[in-house]
Amino acid sequence: MKRLKYDIVIVGSGAGGGTVAQELSPLCRAGLRIAVLEKGPHLRDEEFTGRELEMAGALYEDGGGFLTSDGAMTIAFGCAYGGSTVVYTGTSMLPPERVIHRWGVPGLTHADLECRARKFMAENNAHLIEDRLINENNQMFVAGCRKLGYDVQQFPVNIKGCRGSSLCNLGCPNQAKQGTDRVQLPNAERNGVEVVTRCEVLRVDERSLTARVAAKPEGAKGDPSGWEPGDYQIDAGIVVLSAGAVNTPVLLLRSRMARRLPQIGRRFTVHPAFIIVGEHARPIVNFVGHPKSYYVDFAESEHFVLETCMYFPFITAKSMAGFGQSHSAFMRAFPRLQMILVLACDDADEVNRVAIDRAGKPVVHYRFQRKAIDGLIHGAFAAAKILFAAGAMRVHMPVARETTIEARDAPRLDEIATRAEFVPGQTPVSAAHPQGGCGMGSDASDSVTDSNGRVHGLPWLFVADASLFPNSLEINPYVTIMALADRVAQRIREEVPALV
Amino acid sequence: MPAGLDPDIFKAVVSTIVPEATAFDRQAWDDLEQIVEALLRGRPEALKRQLRMFLRGIEWLPVLRFGRRFTRLSLAGRTQFLRQLQNNRVQKIRVGFWGLRTIVLAGYYGRPQAAQAIGYAARREGWEALR
Fold first, then answer.
1. Cα-trace Rg, chain B
2. Which SS3 state, helix, strand or coil, does residue A7 take?
3. Contact B127 A318 (CB under 8 A)
4. Which residues of B touch A334 (CB under 8 A)?
5. pLDDT, tens digit, for every residue of A168-225?
6. How many separate domains does chain A show?
7. Model pTM above 0.80
8. Are A265 and A327 in contact (CB under 8 A)?
9. One domain for residues A113 and A15
10. Nearest CA of chain A to the CA of B59: how many Å?
11. Is B105–A318 a contact, with Cβ atoms under 8 angstroms apart?
């Protein structure tokens, strides 16, 4: 096993790790050695082809097929230089004030988070895109919402030079999305931070990490790692875990420290989601243009958020319920399809958690709560109403006995879409916002870290990713993750003299 | 066949889940199988074994209810049987069917020809290509 020594090691390069790397990088000029260890590959620009299965295999954990322990929900998260910021749509939302207040983390204020969030929104070019670049899939959502009197809002998105490929979730083929792979990590590297890809951290011990660098598989995308393949022991003055809300708790659970921290893996939330698809009589512009431009926020009143979306053939087919003729009929109508994502707000509880199996591999235990199911049902109902109001002839409804609903049946939607039709393992539910598992709080009895991401009782160990959330954020999370990571970086800068 | 799956049963399942596959030629089946093989490559042997057993169950269980094996049923009969799996009260059976359905849909809709057939044509050039 090779042995290396760094002053600071950051595990993961997504919204959390990339931000911490940038914010600490000026310390390299003072002679500190900082490394970012990233499990995934670093793809070259020309390798972003937009081909669905190829890109999912290259950029997502388990190719996008990571399942909960009962197999009833897929959780999608990135595994690449830039983490999930490579595969999100770039929707840039400030942390909701009501949520931060409800979290009630001592020392964490909404004003502080908002200030930091705005800094990163500006740095990553988050803005409202011009009307002429809004496609019909989004325009029809707005029209439908306005007819129904819903308060429809436009998402700021962090793009620069977007050509409207609509392939955001497969990694932008035009390098327009301003994730940490485009902004924070290159800045950090320019200042002297070393980013090592294909490097999986296996465990964390007292100021030390065990990692394995994989060789680039034959025919795989991305550059080889900067380090030789093999096992490494890395000594570090400070360790920052930013491997995401699944893998950060897993790293801690594999270590001896887990015994002192009973809340590791607990309070896991994920925003379970599904899509509602409407079929129009004529082709609409749907797979050209930014896919996610508008939303309606019912989180406070009815526990759901509706967002525009447009997926690719396989993921669309998988996300619709059923099979056979009616399923195929919707797929054949692809150029006439309008899609809405229903995203439910779940609550941290005692059941939903991240754990490890005997081999130390991640296991996510997740049970759908009544609140989340109600959010999905009410959201499906509202989405179908929007689609019909926008002129859809029929709607695919995943929570109905007969999943195809004709426009003439629209007045009976509440009889057709019912709670009884939500069946885990049958209703196609997926999620892309894993949160919690290393929540912030007061002490080890209620949390894993303090409000600056420092693990209770371990002054050298920090967490900086969505696992810090003590409960669901109820909106797209990357800006809040960056704001929290910025707090973590500030605390580390203050404490470097004592810790390194 | 990928992961040692029985080709006749697998093709009958694919053609029931995506009826368009009944018109497949040899090349289209090869393309679909290649995708499924790539998806299963590197997955645990236990999962592949479960998949083989699940397919075998699909072939023989209809004998109890319909008096015929799955591959000998009409499209309507096959559809009815798979619906029973999809809606089964036992979650493990529903999830097993869900996994099989996912593999089939990936194999079918992961082919560029399928995207073309359904009119999906997203391109890097986005708006420029449209104009």
1. 16
2. strand
3. no
4. 118-120
5. 999 999 999 999 999 999 999 999 999 999 999 999 999 999 999 999 999 999 999 9
6. 2
7. yes
8. no
9. yes
10. 18
11. yes
